[in-house]
Design brief:
- It is a single chain.
- By secondary structure, the chain is an alpha+beta fold.
- It folds into two domains: 149 residues, PurM-like, N-terminal domain (60s Ribosomal Protein L30, Chain: A), CATH 3.30.1330.10; 170 residues, Phosphoribosyl-aminoimidazole Synthetase, Chain A, domain 2, CATH 3.90.650.10.
- The protein has a six-stranded mixed β-sheet. The chain has a four-stranded mixed β-sheet with strand order 3-6-4-5, with helices on one face.
- A hairpin with an 8-residue loop joins strand 1 and strand 2.
- Helix 3 packs parallel to helix 4 and helix 5 packs across helix 9.
- The longest helix has 18 residues.
- The chain is globular.
- The N and C termini lie far apart (46 Å).
- 45% of the residues are buried.
- It is found in: Cytoplasm.
- Its EC number is 6.3.3.1.
- Belongs to the AIR synthase family.
- This is Phosphoribosylformylglycinamidine cyclo-ligase.
């Protein structure tokens, strides 16, 4: 998590200097000190060393217990949701979004997330602000069961405004070769189990911002009765992190696949894990999307198809399991506090069917 700033002393007098160009080395060092306690909370036994090195270290001998370990890697960001965090001055939740976007891509193939690194780019280093962002990332890593082994804080004066920032991250996980999940495991007759999202998660915010601010004229401070809180608080609700829930599911039930519902919507992401000769149907009547999805649709007069190919519509993760595993799968998720239900099934693919499709109307 160290900030890699030029440590050479600037020339004396009126000559050019790094500080004069807008890079504050001391602020970067202060940010590192503030974030250390949060990063420490994510440490796994396999992590060696601490902050300040040029690379994070993870003891790969832990993989010896695997017969044929496969390393999985994923990277992502949070998108334009960071702009809402900036405008609201709330910086300690956006890290949950970042971790969720990365680790829940890893777990789709059955991989246990091992560690993450992050990249935070700012226009000006505000140490407390950077530390709050890292705090959120660390908290997300704890929820995901992975370590935060390092990262980078970069100051880009002249390219970003003093309060502007962006975040990105990369994660690594491991899965046993013969436990790899994916399309080749999925069979006709499998059930599709939906897991509720916590809201919009981290996708579709360009559409959402255009609709609620530009078209509907709402503000972040607008109180929305259906939410029981302000619009800003609803839009900043962190992404739910499913990795430990999914891994628990693989230990108690037979699981053939997962689908992380992100950009592109539910049907498109589900289709990514369905083999070519099969088709997944998802019945809208099995759930009611949260109020935020209805608001976006009404405020922008957005057609349902457009909403569904942009937003998660209340489902953040899906599990594909054989029919005989449905009861134990639902019980496992319920025991872990995950709202889940059978939403559809895998059937033989017809001549004109896509890989996955939504049917029926949403429950009221």
């Amino acid at each position: 998590m160290s900030a890699e700033f030029d440590q050479r002393a600037p020339h004396a007098g009126t000559g050019a200097s790094y500080a004069a160009a807008g890079v504050d080395i001391e602020a970067g060092d202060r940010a590192v000190e503030l974030m250390k306690e949060w990063v420490k909370k994510t440490k796994r036994p396999e992590v060696l060393g601490g902050l300040g090195g040029f690379a994070g270290l993870f003891d790969a001998s832990a993989l010896k217990r695997y017969e044929r370990p496969l390393l999985a890697s994923a990277t992502d960001g949070v998108g334009t949701k960071v702009d809402l965090a900036r405008r609201m001055g709330v910086y300690d939740t956006i890290g949950h979004d970042l971790v969720g976007m990365v680790v829940d891509d890893l777990v789709v193939c059955g991989a246990e997330p091992l560690f993450m690194t992050d990249y935070i780019c700012v226009g000006k280093v505000h140490p407390e602000r950077v530390a709050a962002i890292v705090k959120g990332i660390a908290e997300g890593c704890v929820l995901a069961g992975c370590a935060l082994v390092g990262g980078e804080t970069a100051e880009h004066p002249g390219l970003l405004g003093p309060d502007d920032f962006d975040v990105a991250g990369a994660g690594t996980g491991v899965v046993e070769y013969d436990q790899l999940l994916g399309a080749d495991r999925i069979r006709e007759g499998d059930a599709v189990i939906a897991m509720a999202s916590s809201g919009l998660h981290s996708n579709g915010y360009s559409l959402v911002r255009h609709v609620v601010f530009d078209r509907a004229g709402m503000t972040l401070e607008s109180h929305v009765e259906e939410f029981g809180r302000t619009l800003g608080e609803e839009l900043l609700e962190p992404t739910k992190i499913y990795s430990l829930d999914c891994l628990a599911l693989t230990r108690t039930a037979e699981v053939h696949g997962f689908s992380h519902i992100t950009g592109g919507g539910l049907a498109n992401n589900l289709a990514r894990v369905i083999p070519d000769h099969l088709h997944a149907t998802v019945d809208r009547s099995t759930w009611t999307p949260g109020a935020v999805f209805d608001l976006v649709g009404r405020a922008g007069d957005v057609e349902r198809l457009e909403l569904e190919k942009t937003l998660n519509m209340g489902v953040g993760m899906m599990a594909i399991v054989p029919e005989v595993s449905v009861d134990v799968a639902l019980q496992t998720l319920a025991d872990r506090g995950v709202d889940a239900w059978v939403a559809g099934a895998v059937v033989e693919r017809g001549e004109h069917r896509e890989g996955a499709a939504l049917t029926g109307d949403y429950a009221k």
